[in-house]
Amino acid sequence: MTAFDALKQNSLSFQLLPVSIRELFFLSETPCDIFGMSDGLYKLILRKHSFVNAQVLKDLIAKNHSTIFVHQDMRNNLIELQQNNLRSVTRSLSIGDPIEKGRKQIGLLTLNMSYLYSDPTNDDTLNLQYQSVKNLCAFLYERPEIHEKLYKEFIKQKHHFIFAQPLLASLFLIGVLKQSHVYSFKEVESLFITSYFKDIGMSVIPLEKYDQTTLSEDDTELLRSHPHTSIQILQGRIKLSPAHLAVIENHHMFSLLTNDLHVPDTSKLDEKSVRMISGFETMIVSITDVIAAMITPRPYRSATSLFDSLDLVKALISDDYPTEFRLIVNYFKSVFFRNN
Ligand SMILES: [Fe+2]
Predict the structure, then answer these.
(1) Among the listed residues 254, 255, 267, the one whose alpha carbon sits nearest the alpha carbon of residue 320
(2) 121 CA distance to ligand 1 centroid (A)?
(3) Distances in whole angstroms, Cα of residue 234 to Cα of each of 94, 186, 200
(4) What is the pLDDT of residues 267-298, one digit of tens each?
């Protein structure tokens, strides 16, 4: 390397910020120069206004460019662009092919969730997320026939489990609640929003730490208090009643957060602390969250099948909530295992 090249690399290291390549998903061209890292050196891999599609991005991932680099001055432009993308898909959700629209909306929503986790006090990002989640709820409520397909499409997008889990849990929740025929649309909407935002308190721990097998004592403590932190972040900022905030506060009624995030340890089922009495709403929000946690892989364990996750649900609730357990099983049977 020449002295000039070395200087250039050094200067790039001060100017570039790493971002996930998924920030280029759903764009048709690059809004700025995109750099990659090869053999420890920054390289321009896509010039500004380069054409991008799924194949281009797939090829980059195959070349180890899952993390890309953008100039720090362009960072906010990229976020703004994707947020406008989300805004426009959200507004036109009911127009066009529902699977394609839904797939794009949940992908962009999950991307915006990552922006929200990195800046949870940003009102614009939170409001955009709230409005988009509300529209998504109405869209899904009207179209139970596309839930299975959207679930499969979403799994394919391979989002980080921290961002994927609330979406999956809420998708299951809307189906179960609708199938119960007990709740009005407005009630389903409030519970959907509750379920989607319940883990926002997890944003207090940097994302990379969730990829570690074990957390430090301090981080474990922060993680344990995430339901309460979620309330602190959301209270007064989005429309949720005290009853819905209480659902958030208690959404780990089955989980001790010891062995695996959000997945309960069934060997401790006899302990009184995990057998607390709770309303149907909290139970169902917790259970769909447990299922979503199990079917999303962790760096230290692979994903459980949807079918196997229902076995755990059986162990958790079939004694105390037999009717609700049947409702959940019937829902998954009729929607997700129809063809098996
Ligand atoms: Fe949680």
Answers:
(1) 254
(2) 19
(3) 28, 19, 8
(4) 554 544 444 445 888 989 999 999 888 888 77
Give tens-digit pLDDT for 82-106. Answer: 999 999 999 999 999 999 999 999 9
Boundaries of domain holding 172: 160-335
- Find, among 307, 283, 282, the residue nearest to 294 by Cα: 307
> Do 181 and 317 fall into the same domain?
yes
* Final residue in a domain of this structure, among 56, 72, 88: 72
Tell which of 50, 72, 94 closes a domain.
Answer: 72
Q: How many angstroms is it from 162 CA to the middle of ligand 1?
A: 10
In a domain, 34, yes or no: yes
| Token code pair at residue 43 | 């390289």
What is the total count of domains within the chain?
2
Q: What element of type H or E holds 314?
A: helix 306-317
Q: Is 191 exposed, middle or buried (0-12, 13-18, 19+ CB in 10 A)?
A: buried
Closest CA to 236 of 110, 135, 123, 119: 123
Q: Is residue 9 part of a domain?
A: no
Distance 112 CA to ligand 1 centre (A): 19
Query: Measured in angstroms, how far is the CA atom of residue 259 from the centroid of ligand 1?
Result: 14
pTM tops 0.85: yes
